[in-house]
Amino acid sequence: MALTDWFDIDRRVAILGLARMVDSLGNSFLVVILPLYLSSGIVSGNFFGLSTSLIIGIILGMFGFLNSLGQPFAGRLTDRAGKRKIFVMIGLGVLAVSTFTYTLVDSYAAIIVIRAVQGLGVALTIPAVIALVNEYAGEATRRGGNMGTYNTFRLIGFGSGPVLSGFLLAAAPYSFTVAGQTFTFSGFESAFYIAVLGTILSFILVWLFVADPEDIETTAADDEHAIAVLDHDGDDLLDSVFALAVASLFVAIGIALLTPLETYVNDHLNQSPTLFGIEFAAFTVSQAVLQIPIGSASDRYGRKPFIFWGLVLLVPATLAQGLVTTPLGMILARLAQGIGGAMEFAPALALAGDLAKRGSSGTTLSVITMTFGLGVAIGPIAAGYLINFGYVVPFVFGAILAGLGAIVVYTQVEETLTTESDVSGTAQPAGQD
């Protein structure tokens, strides 16, 4: 029996996930490549008198903030247009062209512009893709598994890219002879070209195998489908989707704390950069392995318990990273953090999808993806500041945020699969009427 049958996954979601995996694989090369490229001496220029390190920080942060902040606007646009596929293809096209442009410029100012354009390109893509996954899933009792499938493919691509890029740089340069003409590419050029090819392949997969659902509706240009902050229909203070977005922000900040602390972690644990890479990957591995089964389990047993207990698990898992004294301890802590993240992410997207009004999936789900992206951008900044107060302080901060997220979910989020008919798959999910 195929995996798609076992977990009741729509094959179109698997294709969409595969397209995102290829795209993420190529573009996650930039996570490793860009900082090295910017400090290699190939790129130069006096950008308002700023230091090179600050310019690199601006360039790296530009993508995350523009990507995240642009998603609600892109989500609203795709809802109003009643189209998803075209937004995905435009976003991928922008990403492919802008990535290729890296090979044509040699100034910091130009690369800042390119990175900003890339952020906007991805902002067009993500809300439309997530909305498609939500609409392909159909019934509420299939939504969690489909969300988990999409995110698993994405994580495989994103997690593999940095590892492969390291090998790519180590083996450079590359020479090819075609019709008697020899072409030589540096490691940086090769990485940029592979990222472009990955995006083009993703574009082709979407073009050939992805289609807009036939029953998608166009939303009116009013406030009916706008992002809600307060709960106007129930007894809670916050709207459930907004509360999930707050929790996702806290989760993402905690997850992103480790990356900028590599030097401190290696010194503290007396380990090599290779071990840090393994520790970093441990989170992604547990996430990728568990997304589909946890998402499918949330279809059967409800969303809120997985989200809440995932956040509870993140408290000790994040704190432990500041307390462990061996590489093995850090690997185990990262695995636990990955489990907690997997328990939160796919069920949270599924719950938001349950609550999305018909035709508003792009707007509703973009709230979750936006805050998660903001958390990934904020986390390294917070870690870089808090480490000045002590090695354990950033991890204490992340653990506190996870605890606050658990409180927010427990008190402000409503369950969407609560009755026996919901579990059997015959009930209509909340918000779909």
What order do the helices and strands come in, and which of them pair?
Blueprint: H1 3-6, H2 11-38, H3 52-81, H4 85-101, H5 108-137, H6 140-170, E1 174-178, E2 181-185, H7 187-209, H8 240-255, H9 262-269, H10 273-301, H11 304-323, H12 327-355, H13 361-386, H14 393-412, H15 420-424
Antiparallel strand pairs: 1-2
Helix pairs in contact: 2-5, 2-6, 2-7, 3-5, 3-13, 4-5, 4-7, 5-6, 5-13, 6-7, 6-10, 6-12, 8-12, 8-13, 8-14, 10-12, 11-12, 11-14, 12-13, 13-14
List keywords for this structure.
433 residues, mainly alpha, Growth Hormone, Chain: A, two-stranded antiparallel sheet, globular
Poorly predicted residue ranges: 1-7, 419-433
- The structure class reads mainly alpha
The major sheet is characterized as: 2 strands, antiparallel
Rg on CA atoms, Å: 21 Å
- What is the topology, as strand order, of the major beta sheet? 1-2
Number of domains: 1
Termini separation (Å)? 34 Å
CATH architecture: Up-down Bundle
Relative helix content: over 70%
Total of helices = 15
Order of helices and strands: HHHHHHEEHHHHHHHHH
By CATH, the superfamily comes out as MFS general substrate transporter like domains
Give the overall shape, derived from the CA principal axes: globular
Summarize the structure.
By secondary structure, this protein is mainly α. Helices cover 73% and strands 2% of the residues. Strands 1-2 form a two-stranded antiparallel ribbon.
Describe this structure in words.
This protein has 433 residues and is mostly helical. 73% of the residues lie in helices and 2% in strands. The protein contains 15 helices and two strands. The protein has a two-stranded antiparallel ribbon. Strand 1 and strand 2 form a beta hairpin. Helix 2 (11-38) packs parallel to helix 6 (140-170). The longest helix is centred in the middle third of the chain and has 31 residues, at 140-170. 51% of the residues are buried. Residues 1-7 and 419-433 have low confidence and may be disordered.
